[in-house]
């Protein structure tokens, strides 16, 4: 099931289509109730301020999740600067476009319990503090990184920036436990500051750090997470060439971070031993 406000094609001169000049959010909606809605709206507002795009009216946005009806859905929101301007010069004032879509969703629940295999990516993320943390429409780096593998046994790829610091996975944030402490990469140069990440950092003592991939050799446990899938424990890490680099066991895995994540999203919080 897919529904959208727009029954007509997107204008060819829309700046989101032409330049990636816009932002998007993907929101988990359960029986018409959006999960992590305050975090999604806060990130969208930050992005609009950073790009100088007027934020859509709250009344317009707040009414969209309720159109989902029963069951689990994903609401995708896209805000572009609209049309106009001359080349890269944006129009002033801008007349932004809001596009939205509702689609059925089912999380990959087997990965909550069994864990996942991931690999390093060759692609390095560019550093641009002005865009760091935002979920903007220009995601070509992530597209290229995700195209590096087609093995269905590999769930995700880890990305470093051009200075060699860990940032994220292609569509998930990265967490690990080192010396009993929960850590996550600092995202002040690149990457997407996920809404689940933000909510977890409000609940748990998670420290932002700048570290290269070698830090994972010291980690007692590693997780990937986002606001749709919840949190996956990592059980195997491969090099970009597919060679096994590190494994982790699920025995004795610290599950509190996973329980917190799943409570935030309305998923089962009790699993594993």
From TrEMBL:
Q: Which residues form a coiled coil?
A: none
Q: What class of enzyme is it?
A: lyase
- The organism sits in which domain of life? Bacteria
What keyword terms does UniProt attach to this protein? Folate biosynthesis, Lyase, Pyridoxal phosphate
Quaternary structure note = Homodimer.
Taxonomic lineage per UniProt? Bacteria, Pseudomonadati, Pseudomonadota, Gammaproteobacteria, Oceanospirillales
One matching Pfam family: Aminotran_4
User: What cofactor does its activity depend on?
Assistant: pyridoxal 5'-phosphate
Q: In which pathway does it act?
A: Cofactor biosynthesis; tetrahydrofolate biosynthesis; 4-aminobenzoate from chorismate: step 2/2
Q: What is its EC number?
A: 4.1.3.38
Q: GO MF terms on file?
A: 4-amino-4-deoxychorismate lyase activity
Family listed: Belongs to the class-IV pyridoxal-phosphate-dependent aminotransferase family.
Which InterPro entries does this entry report, sorted A to Z?
Answer: Aminodeoxychorismate_lyase_IV, Aminotrans_IV, Aminotransferase-like, BCAT-like_C, BCAT-like_N, Class-IV_PLP-Dep_Aminotrnsfr
Q: Which reaction does it catalyse?
A: 4-amino-4-deoxychorismate = 4-aminobenzoate + pyruvate + H(+)
- Name it: Aminodeoxychorismate lyase
Indicate whether Lyase appears among the record's keywords.
yes
């Amino acid at each position: 099931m897919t529904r959208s406000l727009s029954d007509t094609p997107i204008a060819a001169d829309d700046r989101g289509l032409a330049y990636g000049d816009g932002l998007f959010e993907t929101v988990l909606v359960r029986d018409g109730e959006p999960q992590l809605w305050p975090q999604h709206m806060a990130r969208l507002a930050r992005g609009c301020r950073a790009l100088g795009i007027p934020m859509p009216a709250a009344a317009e946005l707040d009414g969209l999740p309720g159109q989902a009806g029963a069951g689990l859905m994903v609401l995708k929101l896209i805000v572009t600067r609209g049309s106009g301007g001359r080349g890269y010069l944006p129009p002033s004032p801008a007349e932004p476009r809001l596009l939205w879509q509702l689609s059925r969703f089912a999380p990959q629940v087997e990965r909550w319990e069994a864990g996942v295999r991931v690999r390093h990516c060759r692609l390095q993320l560019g550093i641009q503090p002005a865009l760091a943390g935002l979920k903007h429409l220009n995601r070509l780096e992530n597209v290229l990184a995700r195209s590096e593998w087609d093995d269905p046994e590999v769930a995700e790829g880890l990305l470093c920036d051009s200075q060699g610091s860990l940032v994220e996975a292609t569509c998930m944030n990265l967490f690990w436990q080192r010396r009993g402490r929960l850590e996550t990469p600092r995202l002040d140069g690149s990457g997407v500051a996920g809404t689940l990440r933000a909510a977890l950092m409000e609940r748990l003592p998670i420290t932002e750090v700048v570290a290269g991939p070698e830090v994972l050799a010291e980690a007692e446990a590693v997780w990937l997470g986002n606001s749709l899938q919840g949190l996956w424990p990592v059980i195997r890490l491969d090099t970009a060439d597919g060679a096994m680099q590190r494994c982790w066991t699920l025995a004795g895995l610290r599950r509190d971070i996973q329980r917190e994540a799943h409570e935030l999203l309305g998923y089962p919080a009790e699993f594993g031993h």
